[in-house]
């Protein structure tokens, strides 16, 4: 079993599927959808089988494949996953088929054929799997940048009225971050050349380097800027509301649910283990940005009149929590952050999808145009409520476990930041409940009365059902995921030299805060 | 009695092939009847360039100085010669395209007829084809190949003239928009003459300081006697002359006008081959003659690289014409190439190999991009205004996809040759400690990304204009060029290993 190249297959299958869908003759949109669904379900099956083949007690990186790719640069096409990457692959496996079904009836602006949309979705899936499965920094970078292209076309060709602006902004922000990271990637290579004797990009070899603190800081910043733009942390976030609001709903789910997680994944996979000293030096600043993001995102979410923008601002707040968990340098905080990455993908995914269903019915993104959805579409309203509650991390829903773990893990080392962050929970309740109150409760008015406002159709139920099941299921029993995540997080926190138990301040310097 | 210099004919075989084909071309032009000239000339030019290409491959591995020290046959020189000959052959294919223009050629039927005269209007639709362009281009290819092999400043100067004079002429041969084309030719000629003068002046000063024009002799003199003001001034002037040909800012002012005015196949030829040749000469001069005193040129090249990247990327943002945009892109890329030149580190750095690879990758992608430009046409010839490209993806998805891929390569997105090249030169620069330069290069790459992206946005996300241009169906020659350049851009991005090894192995300059 372990010999089978699961990860490579998970990249090749959607990539080939995407090319095949793109090559279908004009007008075969129905076939394109069916093919896309079949391929994405196959990837889900592969992800599940890979999880079965993964031994939680085994080595850190498993299911590895490695072939030499560009020998003169010392680059290998090396894939492998630890628990953190594996849960992200599972998330991708679940979200892509959901998005395909959710986009079944979408029509492109100006009567564009949707065939290209499904082709790009599959290509994007291949790139996303690659970015999480790469264990060679160069390969990671290649996927990190190549991932932009399909998302760029998804936003730019199939998005809302300001899609061109949003697509270009998205691409340029990410490209700039990526290029700054490239400088650090090359820098790492040069350091490895001088220390090991030959340049390498292999993660394990780079982890064992002993980098001069001054150089470490510069290299860390290169990676950090790229990931902070991707995640996004607060001063680097302005592209996300535009992209999230203008992207088609399916694209937005993957953008916020998975693509942005590459940023937080990058923090935990690359920034912490490769640059432990620099991470410790910059941690207070990053925590400051994280907490600022929690409050700022929440406040801006409250002020939004556009539903999709609101959801993207809630995500900025959530990314603050994830960064808080990661840069608290405790095992609980780290596990909570990784679990949060999965849960945020699920709860924001379902919230985006529900908002998308409302917008499809009403034709407007403005909250003020709706009211009393519950009167005409009770099931839709119910799902909306559950999605909202999951987003505000109500106990019993999935997000509660992760948010609680993050706060619990951060408090011992970073009490001040943690206390400020808890204010974010209150604000989260406000922005979600205000949205639901305005759009769902009260007498039916606005577009809800003017338009036929049917309740959820069967296809839409199929879309939300698996996510609802996960919201409740992971809320009650998150242990299987934690079993996967914990060893990898413990290894990461071990690299940075903190106490895995997380009960003691990692260093005297941290304890002083 | 004067001894004849020792000549290794086998080492000269690439030149013999190319110049031979060009000379026969002149004879054909004089004596062959009109109707057989076009096919004969195309065949001759292809035989010359492809033959030259094959000869350089056969010479691979040689390392010697021949013709009384005037020519160096070495790995880097042969790599560059092969690149020039190969790109030259692709450009000749673009010249030979007859399916796109209703008058069956991109070149004017009779260049001597004044533009706008009644006779000129008559000739506009005449299917008579100008064929002087083939021997001229072949001469230029020969000059370029000589340029990168010249081991002697005088030979380098002669090669510079041999490559430049035909280029000045063929820039003015556009069939449509002739005034623009002629203006481009005159501008290129005048500024090119200035650059030649700079080069010659520098040559004289260097000769005055060292008493020799041979690169090896200059190196010896620099090592033994050190560098004086005269020598540094001379070097500065030589570099200015070469940078002009390489269209490096601030010596770039001719580039946008000439790229825009010249017939597009000629623009493709200039953008790819001239760039390779000029950088070949820059590498040889700086490395062979001044490699031991790199403090004399390093700060200069460092500064020029930054200026070129910034000027190319920022001014590229404001362009409204595809050809001008690609011209500024070429200026920015010249800056990126100079980061590789900075990585030339007394023989240990990877800068030479990186620059060789970058030149090859950039040349192929650029020829492909200009080939796409020749396809998009309206009633008045090529539609080069950016606004006319709006919604092109609806009209011709394949053309738009090819252009997008090539633009992504120029922007340096992974899995294209542009990324591999950029990675190689930036690595070379960071290895020698020039990381501030690399950071500037990365930031300007992002800025340049914006204008490449703008064209993609126009093609894919904008609604097509009512009376927009149509996309011509290319004949066999252009199809071959597109297939080769797209395939090469992809292969050099996805599996660049063997070509990188080749460049590594070739990265050797004798002198």
From TrEMBL, chain A:
Source domain of life? Bacteria
Show the InterPro entries listed in the entry: NADH_Q_OxRdtase_chainM/4, NADH_UbQ_OxRdtase, ND/Mrp_TM
Q: Does the keyword Transmembrane helix apply?
A: yes
Topology with regard to the membrane?
Multi-pass membrane protein
Task: Give GO terms for biological process.
Answer: ATP synthesis coupled electron transport; electron transport coupled proton transport
Q: Provide one Gene Ontology cellular component.
A: endomembrane system
**One Pfam family in the UniProt entry:** Proton_antipo_M
Q: Where in the cell is it found?
A: Endomembrane system; Membrane
List keywords of the entry alphabetically. Answer: Membrane, Transmembrane, Transmembrane helix
State which residue ranges cross the membrane: 6-24, 36-57, 77-104, 116-134, 140-158, 170-191, 218-240, 252-270, 282-303, 310-331, 337-359, 379-396, 416-436, 461-477
Q: Name one GO molecular function term.
A: ubiquinone binding
- NADH:quinone oxidoreductase/Mrp antiporter transmembrane domain: which residues? 134-427
Decide whether keyword Membrane is in the record.
yes
PANTHER family the record matches: NADH-UBIQUINONE OXIDOREDUCTASE CHAIN 4
UniProt family annotation: Belongs to the complex I subunit 4 family.
Write the protein's name.
NADH dehydrogenase subunit M
From TrEMBL, chain B:
Q: Does the keyword Transport apply?
A: yes
This enzyme's EC code(s): 7.1.1.-
Q: Which domain of life is it from?
A: Bacteria
Give the top-level enzyme category: translocase
Q: Does the keyword Hydrolase apply?
A: no
- Where, per UniProt, does this protein localize? Cell membrane; Endomembrane system; Membrane
Keywords, alphabetical: Cell membrane, Membrane, NAD, Quinone, Translocase, Transmembrane, Transmembrane helix, Transport
Catalysis: reaction(s):
a quinone + NADH + 5 H(+)(in) = a quinol + NAD(+) + 4 H(+)(out)
Q: Name one GO molecular function term.
A: quinone binding
The protein's job, in short, is:
NDH-1 shuttles electrons from NADH, via FMN and iron-sulfur (Fe-S) centers, to quinones in the respiratory chain. The immediate electron acceptor for the enzyme in this species is believed to be a menaquinone. Couples the redox reaction to proton translocation (for every two electrons transferred, four hydrogen ions are translocated across the cytoplasmic membrane), and thus conserves the redox energy in a proton gradient.
Q: What is the name of the protein in this document?
A: NADH-quinone oxidoreductase subunit N
Q: Which gene encodes it?
A: nuoN
